[in-house]
Write a structure and sequence with these properties.
about 30% helix, three-stranded mixed sheet, four-stranded mixed sheet
């Protein structure tokens, strides 16, 4: 109702039900009483005026109008109470001809008690979701609902695959952290071993700077043969592993510089290989290349055979641990070559106690140089 309508309106249940201006007779009538009976016979009473506000605050269904109701609150039957109706007494004092007098009055009337009740609400999608979620959780149906929802077309195949991988992952896999070093990347990657995804394609959990002990690095480079001796060995054909286009240098971060490397054949190369030198493997954790993107293999560098494959270097390193040993077999040299590569590419500090993984191309280059007597290999040890 507008302000102009409120000035001249009178409440009527049918024609004007929202007007807040009432006639005394209408109020008594709506309470199903007679005014003459209340005022004279019963001598007063109490009538309650109840106002209910039920408001819908949504824009499309906005509604907030009062609803009036009337009823008698006192007991009017004389056989049920000693004082029916509404009455009260008061005294008035006066002085007449020097004499003080008191007049006692008993007054009857009608009292109106106004009671207002209100309730308002507005739809909220957040509250609805919380209510549905709490209801499902109460009945332990949340897991069933999520499994059904992800199984529908609302999610892609990749999301379904990741959800299944996380849901059915064993406790042991959660602790299986692997460390990967790509020749075209400065940082070391820490990944979680997966039984459903190739290690080459696994996304890293974190990346860490390459760290190395400078003292051990100087000691390792100190035992390498000089460039003049390397050239002499290459000319005499006594050390075929040094035949490359140039040396591979490293920066403090362990990144390989762009020095030309020797091309390698790419026949029968698996699709996950980026350097063209890897071999196929049934183990997903062994499907790892030395590079993240297409390029030359690290095994084509002259520093790789000099540091990892040279027999004299490996024997000196083994003698450092066992000074009285006289002869070493190819199995020992092969395992030491693996250790040399890990020392070179991963440094002295493996982040998060992860297991370093050697690329497939490097593993097979070492096995080619120092093969097993029976042609069988136990494979790399993973968690």
């Amino acid at each position: 109702m507008k302000g102009t309508e409120l000035k001249g309106c009178i409440y009527n249940r049918y024609t004007n039900p929202y007007c807040p201006i009432f006639r005394l007779g209408d109020i008594v009538h709506e309470a199903k009483e007679r005014f003459s009976e209340m005022a004279v016979e019963v001598r007063g009473g109490v009538i309650g005026i109840q106002i209910n506000w039920n408001c819908d605050l949504n824009r499309l269904f906005h509604s907030c109008l009062p609803k009036y109701s009337f009823r008698r609150l006192d007991e009017k039957e004389s056989n049920r109470t000693l004082y029916p109706g509404l009455s009260f007494r008061f005294a008035r004092y006066s002085t007449v001809n020097g004499v003080e007098q008191r007049t006692l009055f008993k007054v009857y009337g009608i009292r109106f008690d106004v009671m207002v009740f209100g309730k308002a609400g507005k739809f909220s999608i957040i509250q609805l979701i919380i209510y549905i979620g709490s209801t499902l959780s109460y009945y332990a149906l949340t897991t069933v609902f999520i499994d059904w929802l992800i199984g529908t077309n609302c999610y892609s195949r990749t999301a379904k695959h990741k959800y299944s991988e996380k849901k059915f992952e064993s406790v042991q896999d959660k602790k299986c952290l692997l460390c990967v070093s790509f020749v075209d990347e400065e940082q070391l990657r820490v990944v979680k071993g997966s039984r459903n995804k190739r290690l080459q394609e696994t996304k890293p959990l974190s990346k860490h700077q390459w760290k190395d002990n400078s003292a051990s690095k100087r000691a390792l480079l100190g035992i390498l043969p000089s460039q003049q001796n390397i050239s002499l060995l290459v000319q005499n054909g006594r050390c075929r592993e040094f035949k490359a286009d140039g040396a591979l240098s490293t920066e403090p971060g362990g990144l390989v510089t762009d020095i030309p490397l020797m091309e390698m054949p790419t026949s029968r190369c698996p699709d996950w290989c980026q350097c063209g030198c890897c071999q196929s493997s049934s183990s997903l954790q062994e499907q790892l290349c030395c590079r993240q993107s297409k390029g030359r293999c690290i095994t084509t560098s002259s520093l790789f055979p000099a540091l990892v494959l040279t027999r004299s270097i490996l024997e000196i390193t083994l003698l450092y641990a066992a000074p009285l040993a006289e002869q070493y077999e190819d199995d020992q040299l092969r395992h030491q070559a693996y250790a040399q590569y890990i020392k070179w590419r991963f440094g002295d500090f493996i982040p998060m106690d992860a297991v370093p993984v050697i690329p497939s191309c490097c593993v097979w280059r070492v096995r080619e140089q120092y093969p097993s007597s029976d042609g069988k290999y136990s494979g790399l040890g993973f968690c």
